[in-house]
Amino acid sequence: MRVLYFGDPRGALALLERGATLVGVVHGRRGGPGWSKLLPRLAGVPRWTRPDLDAVLGPLADTRPDLIVSGFYPRRIPASVLALAPGINVHPSDLPRWRGPDPITWALRAGDERTAICVHWLTEGVDEGDVLHRVPVLIEARDTGARLADRLEAQCAEVVADVALRLLRGEKLAPQPQMGEVTWAPLVHPDEWEIDWSRPAVEIDRFVRAASPDPGAFTGIGEELLVILGGRPLSADQFEALVPGTPFVRSGHAFIRCGEDAYRLDRVRLGQRTLNGRQLAELLV
Predict the structure, then answer these.
(1) How far apart are CA 183 and CA 18, in angstroms?
(2) Domains of the chain
(3) Helix, strand or coil for residue 135?
(4) pLDDT per residue over 223-262, tens digit each?
(5) H helices present in the chain, as ranges
(6) CA-based Rg of the chain, rounded to a whole angstrom?
């Protein structure tokens, strides 16, 4: 059961725990959850970090894999590598919804109530192979980008390792073509997280949670940059006369008027300081 693995350390650990033999590991980056546990178990195993895959094709071929497994590897794996063995990838979305590198962010921004973990055959295209296994996942009402990512990424490691072992043992799985509308989840640059206060408060809340805690959605307060780490949408009909983007204080708490309703600021970063909503309100009065 020889596996050439690409990606997150947790997936590699899950494969080892199930008895797979890792004949090569290609890291997307050094570090991350599971890194310190994984390194001692890779003694003598060829490893690469973000290499030019075509340039190391010979050494990769020398690993003679039975299966290629990918979990959160940040680059496309070229056809020359995919020709070495069948390959599977795990993706944290309900494919074909949110193909691409940032599905968790876009699911939260869109207000999706559910997502999935999909294991699919690796192809030259991005996240487009037939799905071998799909696990539905509910998105909780107050999930942030970080919280949902932690939950999904840990589950993804276990799910892809289970599917890999089933394939390596010769189990015949029934691949299902991806059906429905294809939507894309490109990476969001930190500069694109500026809040548009003309939008409804519920939409702004999704936007803030998707960016929390890092890089953080932001806005300007006077000449200072305010990074919003948490808050909630609230009805604010009595403040309809305020222009969207206007901060105000009610009951000792800070709010900002939105295109529809208002957004209560519960936790923010102002310069080097992290403040709660009441502390911010004191500065606004």
Answers:
(1) 34
(2) 2-168 (3.40.50.170), 190-284 (3.10.25.10)
(3) strand
(4) 889 999 999 999 877 777 899 999 999 999 999 999 999 9
(5) 9-17, 35-38, 57-62, 79-82, 103-110, 145-168, 201-211, 277-284
(6) 22
| Residue 107 tokens, joined | 């699911």
Residue with tokens 């296994």: 133
Residues in the chain: 285
Q: Is 269 helix (H, G, I), strand (E, B) or coil?
A: strand
Per-residue pLDDT at 166 exceeds 90: yes
Helix (H, G, I), strand (E, B) or coil at 227: strand
Residue 222 has pLDDT above 90, yes or no: no
CA distance 220 to 199: 16
Tell me the pLDDT tens digit for each residue of 48-60.
988 899 999 999 9
CA-CA-CA-CA torsion sign (93, 98, 99, 103): negative
Instruction: Count CB atoms within 10 A of the CB of residue 82.
Output: 17
**What is the DSSP pairing of strand 217-221 with strand 253-257?**
unpaired
Do 80 and 18 contact (CB within 8 A), yes or no? no
**Going by DSSP bridges, is the β-strand pair 273-276/262-270 parallel, antiparallel, or unpaired?**
antiparallel
Question: Given this model, what pLDDT does residue 31 score?
Answer: 63
Nearest to 78 by CA among 122, 120, 28, 124: 124
Contact 102, 188 (CB under 8 A): yes
265: left (phi over 0), alpha (psi -120 to 50) or beta: beta
Q: pLDDT tens digit string along 125-148? A: 999 999 999 999 999 999 999 999
Half-sphere exposure of 131 (CA within 13 A, CB side): 19
